[in-house]
Amino acid sequence: MTKIYLVRHGETVDNVNQIMQGQTQGELTPAGLQQARRLADELAGVRFDAFLASDLKRSIDTCAVIASRHGATVVTTPLLRERDWGDFTGRYIPDLRGLDFPANVESLDALKSRAREFLDRVARRYPGQTVLAVGHGIINKAIQAVHYGKSMPEIPRMGNAEVRVLDVE
């Protein structure tokens, strides 16, 4: 059994400003860095075999803070990227309420397929190990939905620098 500590990145400038980040890099706020440090303190006693992060800066930076406490490096993967919001990317979130999704928004099927591929890859590459994986709100929700066999709305929203533990076979 592989244990995954699934983490959402720390607070970003765009989170504060309610901007749809999608697959943009993002920048942690000072509060976001503090959230990552606090989580690193909480997880200091856990022995991790690998530290994985989305290849987007906000996740890499969050993961690096935690990995540094363990003297480890971060491995990035596009499988942990946030949902591609297409033409909604960079827009003010309250302005998007009630609008139809543009055709270039990543579908839920594609998102869940990516989540399944991530879970399968981690189970294959890290059997019986403990992995910390830093992603984003929607991809983390998809990973949990696939893992538990639930719909996306059934998975509670993750806060910034929140961790959930999954046992993967």
TL;DR?
This protein has five helices and five strands. The chain is an alpha/beta fold. The protein has a five-stranded mixed β-sheet, with helices on both faces.
Outline the structure in words:
- This protein has a five-stranded mixed β-sheet with strand order 3-2-4-1-5, with helices on both faces.
- Helix 2 (30-42) packs parallel to helix 3 (57-68) and helix 4 packs across helix 5 (137-148).
- The protein has helices spanning 13-16, 30-42, 57-68, 108-125, 137-148; strands at residues 2-8, 50-54, 75-77, 130-135, 163-168.
- The chain contains five helices and five strands; from the N terminus they run βααβαβαβαβ.
Largest sheet: number of strands, sense, barrel closure: 5 strands, mixed
**Which descriptor suits the 3D outline?**
globular
Mean pLDDT: 97
The total count of strands amounts to: 5
Structural class: alpha/beta
The helix content, as a percent range, equals: 25-40%
As a whole number of angstroms, the C-alpha radius of gyration is 15 Å
Task: Furnish the topology, listing elements before pairings.
Elements: E1 2-8, H1 13-16, H2 30-42, E2 50-54, H3 57-68, E3 75-77, H4 108-125, E4 130-135, H5 137-148, E5 163-168
Parallel strand pairs: 1-4, 2-3, 2-4
Antiparallel strand pairs: 1-5
Helix pairs in contact: 2-3, 4-5
